[in-house]
Amino acid sequence: MCRYRLLLLVVALLLPIQLIAAEEATVAGAMIVNGKTIKLTHVYAIAIRTESPDEKLYRLIFSDAAISDKDLALFPDVLIKAINDGALHAIRANLDDHGAVDSVEIYMPSETTWIKEGNKAELKTFNEKTIAGRVHLDKYNDGSGTYAYDLKFSAPIKQEADLTAAP
After folding, report:
1. CB 3.0–4.6 Å: which of 55, 73, 144, 147 could bond 163 by disulfide?
2. Is 55 helix (H, G, I), strand (E, B) or coil?
């Protein structure tokens, strides 16, 4: 009976650690813009409301600095100064409800580049709680610059409504 109680105690103590760890976002990789490599260290996944109740859209935001929930709700508008000052570099990937990349925006000082073609997603997990896998672009040249990125990530999905309610 004593061993059983000890086992229950160990399980009770370890369970919250596993739940907390499961909710952490991780990202490894970088983007290359005009030959400059920028390591991206934060990732956020957001479920977006649509007019159709059967359709969901998702945004993945990768950045080199932390972004608050309040600022994620209004991204990129509230962070334009930080982006233009070089304090924040970011990628926003827009995914459809099947996990395919629709488009990507790259945010750099004094420029935003919108890329519709060549973006690839290889998702290992795509469910109501988590998006995980790899997004990448081998090389893209829009005439004014060259762009590439390769990011492996895992992120819990935040609901857009929860972000707009953030204090």
Report:
1. 73
2. coil
Phi and psi based region of residue 35 (left: phi greater than 0; alpha: psi -120 to 50; beta: remaining) = left
Q: What is the rounded CA–CA span in Å between residue 40 and residue 31?
A: 7
Q: 76 preceded by cis ω (within 30°)?
A: yes
∠ CA 56-80-143, rounded to 5°: 85
pLDDT per residue as tens digits for the range 125-147: 999 999 999 999 999 999 989 99
53 by DSSP, 3-state: which?
coil
Element (H, E) at 9: helix 2-22
Find residue 157's DSSP bridge partners: 45
Strands 42-48 and 146-159, by their bridges, are parallel
What CA–CA distances, in Å, run from 131 to 32, 42, 62, 96? Answer: 23, 14, 13, 12
DSSP element (H, E) containing 119: none
How far is C-alpha 92 from the geometric centre of its chain's CA atoms? 7
The DSSP code for 127 is S
Q: Are 155 and 24 in contact (CB under 8 A)?
A: no
- Amino acid identity of 136? H
- Residue pLDDT, tens place only, 74-117: 999 999 999 999 999 999 999 999 999 999 999 999 789 999 99
